[in-house]
Amino acid sequence: MKQIFLKLQDFDTASFQGKMRVFATGLLLSMLTTFVLQFAMFFQEWGRYNQTTNIIQALQYTAEYMVKAQAWFSVFEFFLLFLVILVIINRYFLTIALYLILTIIMFVAEYMKVKARNEPILFSDLSEITAANGLTGMVNKQLLTASILCVLGIIILALLLEYWMRKRRLGKFGKVVHDMLFQTVGVRIGIVLIAGGILAIPFTVNADRNQAWLSYAGYERVVYSSGDDALWNGPLATFLSNVSTIIMREPSGYSAKTMREVQHRYEREAQNINVHRTSSKKGQTLIYVLSESLTDPNEIKELHYSGENVSKNIDQVMQRSTVSGKMLSSGYGGGTANIEYMTLAGFPLATYAPEMTVPYVQVVPFANAVPNVTSLFQKKEVLHPFVGSLYNRQGAYKRMGINHFYTTDSDKNPYPKKYQAGITKADYPSDENAFKFLESKISSSSNNQSQFLQLMTMQNHMPYVAGEYPNNNYHVLSPAVSGGTKTQIESYLAGVHESDLALKKLINKLDKSSRPVTMVFYGDHWPGIFTFVDPQKQAKIAHETDYFIYQNDAAKKLDNGAQTQNRNYASPSDFPAMTLQAMNVKVSPFFALQTDVKDELPAFANYTRGTFVDNNGNELKTKDLTTKQKKLLHDFKLVQYDLSSGKHYLSNSFTKK
Asked: Which helix (H) or strand (E) holds 237?
C-alpha cells in the first residue's frame, strides 16, 4: 500500500490534465477537418446525393454525415496525423498552425476539383504537384487569395505565440501549454511508431487488404463514381481506397498454355485481315487531335441559346469523314490523359481494376509492355500548348516511344512562342494557333518516313470567364441557371465556335496537301459547367463527344479499297483499330484482336463498368452479350492483363508488325 501511495504522490496531475487538453484539441481539429472536407463535397451545384448551393442545407447534410462510421474513421485518421505532427515538432502553436494549413490546402483542393469534375482528390493526383504552376491557373482566384491570406495569418499568429512562450510572457498559460507537450523522447518515438504505423497501412498493404482494412471502418466502395464514393464515404476514405493500386485482377483461366492459344488464334486472325490490307504506312501521316473539353452543345436537349450554330463546320466535316459518331468518354469535366491513353493503347479503362485511375501514372511505368498505335510509325511527335509535367506525360511518352514532346515548359522541345497566343492575352493558346503549329510539323510529300502527330489543344479548357471572347454574341435562353453558370456556358459556346472556325481552316489546309494525311479528331470530355445535366442519371449523354476520322484526297486515293466502317458509338480504345482500317494497312496479332473487338463488340461505356453501348445507342450489360462476344471479351482481358501486369507469356511478336 505504501508503494502505491508513493506512486500516486508522483502522479503529475497537471501533466495528465495537459495531455487531456491536447487530446481534446486534436479531437476538435480532426472533427473540424472532417466536417469542412465533407462540406466541400456537399456545397456544390451538381445535385448528387444532396449536393446544393444552399449553404444552410449543405451544413445540415454535412452534420448528418458526421454521425456515420465513415466520418469517425476520418476523425480518427486526422487525429493520428495531429499527434504525429505534435510529437515531431514539439511546439503546440506551430502544430496547430501546420495542421490548419494542411486543412485549408485540402479544403481548397477538394472543393475546386469537385466543382470542376465532381470528383475528389485521388492518390494519383499527387503526381501533379510538380506541375503546380499549371494547376494554379485553374483555381478560383478569389478562393486562392483568401486561402493564402488565411495561411499567412495563421503562420504569423503561431510564430508570435511561440515567441512569447519562449520569452515566458504567457505566465500560467505558458505552464499549461508546456504540460500539453510530450517531453519524454521514448514516448514521442512510441507515438510516432504507433500512430504513423496505423496511418501507413493503406500505403504498405496490397489493394485487397487495403479494402478489407477500410471496410472495418464502414467503407463501402461506389465503383461507378469516385465523386459519389466521396459523398457517401468521405473524401479521405476515397483517397485511401485508391492508394494501394492493382492494375488489373487476373482473369479466369490465365496461364502460359492459354496465352499460347490466344497468340496463335490472333496470329491467324491477323493473316486473314491482312489479305485485304494493301496500303503501306510509308510516306503517310496520321494525326490525332484531342480537342480539349469539346462537345456538341446542340446535342444537349435542355440547352437553348441565341447565336449561330456553334459547330456548323464540325457537323459538315463529320458528314464527309471516313467514319464519325459519338465517342464514349470515361471523364466528365476532366480526365484528359486517361482518354488520351485509351486512344493510343487501345485498352479501355473499364476493363482495368477500379483502383487504377490514371494509366500514365499507374500502368505505363510498370507494365510488361506498352504497345500502342504510335509504335507503327517512324517519326512520332506530340504537341501540347501547356506544361508537360501533368499526368506523368513526359515519362509515359518516353516509355511509349514518342520522339519529341513539345510543351510550354520544355527546354529540350519548347512549344514555339509564336503559336502560343490566345484569343485574348489572358487566354490559353487558341486552336487556330495550335493548328498552325500542327500544320508546320506535317512532313512534305517527298518524305517517305511514316509520321505520327498528336495535338492536345487547350483553348476550351476551364475556367470559362466573362470577357474571354470579345464581342461574344451567344446567350443562354434556357434552362434558367445561376448568373455564374450562365456566364460560363456563354463563354464556352463562344470558344466552341472559335474552334469550329479553326477546324475549317485546318481541313482546307489538309485538303490542299499532296501528302496522304489521316486525322482522328475528338473531344475528350464535357466541360464541367452544364450543372442541369446529371452526369450519373444521364450518364451516356453526359459522356458523349463528337469524333471523326478524316482523310484528305491523297490518303483516300492511297487507301482506296479500305472497308467502310459504321461506328455510331465508339470507345476511345477503338481508335487504333479504326484508324488502321481507314488507312488500309496491315496489322499485328495485337491490333487484329482490337479490330475484332471493334467489329464484334458494342462500344465500351467507360463511364461505368460492365456496360456497353451498341450502334443504336442502347446500353447493354456484359450478361446481354452473346457467347461469342463474351469469349472475345475474355480474350481481350487476358491480353490486357498479360501485357499490363501479368507474367508476359505473350511473345514480342504478338505486338510487332
From this structure: helix 235-241
Q: How far is CA 508 from CA 285, 419, 451, 502, 547, in A?
A: 16, 19, 20, 10, 18
- Angstrom CA distances, 641 to 251, 263, 368, 421, 575, stand at 7, 14, 10, 43, 20
* Cell reading at 463: 475556367
CA-to-CA separations, 400 to 123, 242, 559, in angstroms, rounded: 23, 25, 27
- Identify the bridge partners of residue 414 per DSSP, sorted by sequence position: 407
Measured CA distances, 345 to 331, 341, 366, 370 (Å): 17, 6, 15, 7
Whether the Cβ atoms of residue 331 and residue 117 lie closer than 8 Å to each other: yes
For residue 648, the surrounding DSSP H or E stretch is none
Alpha-carbon gap, residue 280 to 582, rounded angstroms = 12
What pTM was estimated for this model as a whole? 0.76
442, exposed or middle or buried, with CB in 10 Å at 0-12, 13-18, 19+? middle
Cα(372)–Cα(155) distance, integer angstroms: 50
What is the spatial distance between Cα 440 and Cα 260, in angstroms, rounded to a whole number? Answer: 45
pLDDT in tens, 148-164: 899 999 999 888 887 87
Q: How far apart are CA 364 and CA 354, in angstroms?
A: 16
Beta bridge partners of 285: 451, 517
Alpha helix ranges (H) inside 374-459: 393-400, 431-441
DSSP-assigned beta bridge partners for residue 452: 286, 380
Helix axes 589-600, 627-644, angle to 10 degrees: 140
Q: What is the pLDDT of residues 62-72, one digit of tens each?
A: 999 999 999 99
